Amino acid sequence: MSEAEEGWQRVLKAFDDWIYYESSEFGPYTGYFSLESFRDLIHGERVGWMRSMYEELIPGRVERCRNAVVAFEDFMPFMPDTDARDVVQSMIDLAQVIVDSMLGMSDTFHAMMEEHESSGFDEIAPYLSDLAETEENIRHHMSLFSEGFTKLRGLGLEMPDMES
User: Fold this and answer.
1) Cα 63 to the center of its chain, rounded Å
2) What is the pLDDT of residues 130-140, one digit of tens each?
3) Nearest C-alpha neighbor of 38 from the set 156, 142, 150, 129
4) The predicted structure's pLDDT at residue 97
């Protein structure tokens, strides 16, 4: 396998890992961004959900996004021309926008935990709305990666099949 093919494999694996994490680890917990769903939790479950999101799930999400960035940065030297490098750089920049949003979400969780502790349930509805809006924004930006991969294909850079 050539170095370029290995680079593709690392990029695709990083994205597969990220997508898997999103769907299996993070995604199931986003249902509580709805006030109605959040209301269904008892106090201990609310606190546990907020802590889990803040301490584990969002950091895991950020890590996987950053792993995709590293894979792209490592892949950059194999780009055949300026156009391809520009597309990869735009995908790296896109990932940074996503990381920034994820970190903002972490800040929201921190503030929400403090508010929940001091004021209780009723005062955190705006935080849930912020989280839902941020999540929608993150998912929109994540969907833009497909455009980047399509552009790379259009430049003649075919993705190899993933090896087991």
Assistant:
1) 9
2) 999 999 999 99
3) 129
4) 97
Instruction: State the Cα angle at 72 between 67 and 77, rounded to 5°.
Output: 140
H/E stretch holding 66: helix 58-75
Determine contact, residues 132/95, Cβ cutoff 8 Å: no
Helix and strand numbers, DSSP H then E, in the chain:
7, 0
Q: Could you give the CA distance from residue 47 to residue 116 in angstroms, rounded to a whole number?
A: 8
Rounded Cα gap, residues 103 and 146, in angstroms: 23
Assigned token pair, 18: 């990220």
Predicted confidence (pLDDT) per residue in 76-101, tens digit: 998 989 999 999 999 999 999 999 99
Residue with tokens 């769903």: 37
Q: Which two tokens stand for residue 62?
A: 């950020």
Separation CA 115–CA 1 (nearest Å): 54
CB neighbours (10 Å) of residue 29?
13
* Measured distance CA(160)–CA(153) in Å, rounded: 11
Q: pLDDT at position 164, please?
A: 45
